[in-house]
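ugh ok fine here u go
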Amino acid sequence: MKSLTLYKVNKLDIDDSVSLIKDKKPVGTISPSENTLTISKNTFKEYSCTYNFIVKEDILVSVNDDFIPVSEYQHTNSFKAFYCKEKNLFFVFAPSSICRGFIKSLKSTYSEEVDISNPIKFPFDKIKTYEKSARGLYFNVDDDTVTSKHFFGTGVEQNDEAVEAIDKNRATYLMAKIDVSGISRTIGFSKKGALVMYSKPMDKLDKDYPYLELAVEILQAIQLWK
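structure:
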């Protein structure tokens, strides 16, 4: 399984390796690669990225051969990102929780060079027309005691409550089986812009970045690559 978050980009002029700053402290890096990729006649610029986040957990840390208890520690997450200028899209191969902090720090540190909008919103009502079958759905509900529900199974798309949640824009995550370039694939779509690919693209393992190739084909399959 591999996930990425998609962002609309108005401007991304990062041509050197730079640090991301938050509260006057470095919290990550972004470094452009000399490599570029061409997928579906569009050029992608590759970036190597890191982002640090605090894990609140009681552990023992070794310092000068002594073990000291700490209640939190810093973890560094490394990931790739790809910018397609022709489509104004930024593909960030990290979980949504990491992406939010990374993009926020990137924009605040380099406000003159970077203008990135919120994650794209996948149109669940449109995706529903392309799916062969739905596998799962999360959605919000208006109830005094229950705030959300989730359904799983091969007939989710036939459930009246699930259909209504999509039609009324209350769905937050859709797992669907979609025909992508002639192959049936299970894909997850989040309202927060996350795209989840549940199986390895065995037909693309000869490519430099098979999951990026697959992500582009998924956008083409649901008519979001125009």
